[in-house]
Specification:
single chain, 114 residues, mainly alpha
């Protein structure tokens, strides 16, 4: 995501990051995702997800700076906007959740009894 000042914010979602999101929000990542469709998830959920994605990227890139905080995530939300951040975050999270699952790999595709 590009900020108005030209800085780029990158996120990375791993299973570890998703587990940390679940711990912070007190519900499963699938419940959070479904909550967006049913208006049960909100701004704080997006901020927590963004924070963990930014922190995972910081660790992955081995950036020598302090850990990303929830306040950092809210600064990005304020600069970029909720809708754009939510789209980026949910797309990235769905990529992790669906990693390795191709329709060709699903059991029962060739078995009408499954």
């Amino acid at each position: 995501m590009a900020l108005a000042d030209g800085r780029e914010v990158q996120v990375l979602y791993t299973n570890r990051a998703l587990a940390q999101i679940e711990q912070d929000l007190g519900r499963s990542i699938l419940a959070v995702a479904q909550g967006f469709a049913s208006n049960q998830s909100g701004i704080k959920d997006v901020a927590v997800m963004l924070r963990h994605g930014m922190e995972a990227q910081r660790r992955y890139a081995r950036m020598d700076r302090r850990a990303v905080t929830l306040l950092d995530a809210f600064e990005v939300l304020d600069a970029v906007g909720l809708t754009q951040v939510a789209e980026v975050v949910m797309l990235a999270v769905s990529d992790v959740l669906g990693y390795g699952a191709k329709s060709d790999d699903l059991p029962g595709d060739d078995d009408p009894n499954f």
